[in-house]
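ENCODED BACKBONE
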Amino acid sequence: MPDASLSERARSDAERPDRHSLSVMAATVVGFAGMTHLGVVSAVATAARGFSVIGYDKDRELVARLRSGAMPVIEPQLDDLAAEHRERIGFTAEAGDLARCDVIFIAADVPTDDQAKSDLAPISALVDTVSRQLHENAILVVLCQVPPGFTRAIGTVPAERLIYQVETLVFGRAVERALHPERFIIGCADPAKPLPARYRELLEAFGCPILPMRYESAELAKISINFCLVASIGVANTLAELCEAIGADWAEIIPALRLDRRIGPHSYLAPGLGIAGGNLERDLRTVLDLAAECHTDSGIVQAWIANSRHRRDWCWRVLNNAVLTKNPAARIAVLGLAYKENTHSTKNSPALALVEQLRGYDVRAHDPVVPASAAPHAKASTDARSCAADADVLILATPWPEYRELRIEDLARLMTGRVLIDPFRLLDGAVAARAGFEYHALGMPPLLPC
């Protein structure tokens, strides 16, 4: 059944003064279509800025869950923020309820296939559904990650009321970035013209620079941001591997790079286990396709992909060389299955790739939020300590904060073997070596037992 009170609630919220916003903000009703990670986080952050928000999704079970206050995604601060501002948020499975909105965001996550190619059909269908609900002055904003050319090709909304906005959320930090964006990158038909008043008021509530540009520039800007990130990852991974081979320590080099103005203090220089999560891979795939179509060079993209695949298997290579070649029957404990900390996403997870490579071995696994069914070839453990018990080798495959709390002396007592594979340096390698462990981490040579 539709939420009969939704429109009334939006109208009531619009009339209620709010300490977080100017009165003109409170009069604006903002809609978000697609209650995926992007849509949910963006809707909650917008409500937190004082706006009345309507969240739409055709999935009635999902809407019922949202109405009950249960967030369908895991993000730090999200549950508390949603509870604090729930009076300003209504959820509905009826597209017609969006007719009250002054600004509506297409905010569904874009699905990708095994080759990281975007499936834009659901996004196009959502655009068509929402376009039919727009009142004559309402603004449609495409917030999801689409390739250059997508927004301009939308023919159901007049160009002066059609916007593309770059989303820059990060899994595990999405609420922080939604509440405090660095800037807004806005694609529009004519960037020389003023943005629609209600939409600009919405953007100005977040207090950051607004950068209007043509549709294609904004769509490519999102890809450009991710390419700079991928380039940094490639640099860090390539040189971290060299450090492991020659006896250098990448962690000692990073501060020197951050003090170089051409690189900067906030540059992404931490080595990792390749590119994962789906978004970066999608942008690489998009550029490969565009380059093939436009006959431009994409060799560097191919190199980044090859480097990512190589680094994804780092844990497997270390495990094989340090343990399995000597003891094929070793008991292996894997901590972490999500592709990164503070998220339930396992898209292209290096940890799951490792567990798959270990099919047939004696493997236990634990993750704070990812269900055991994600790793059917491993025995599930209820906590990190029980996972490590009697293990010959412990692999900290995802840098969850709780794994940093593990004590080396406890691991020495729990484990049978003495090999720690800790790519993200969650534990103190020097302490581990003094306790008799062989310690392996990204970007440094192994530390042997003292």
The chain has three domains: 6-213, 223-311, 313-440.
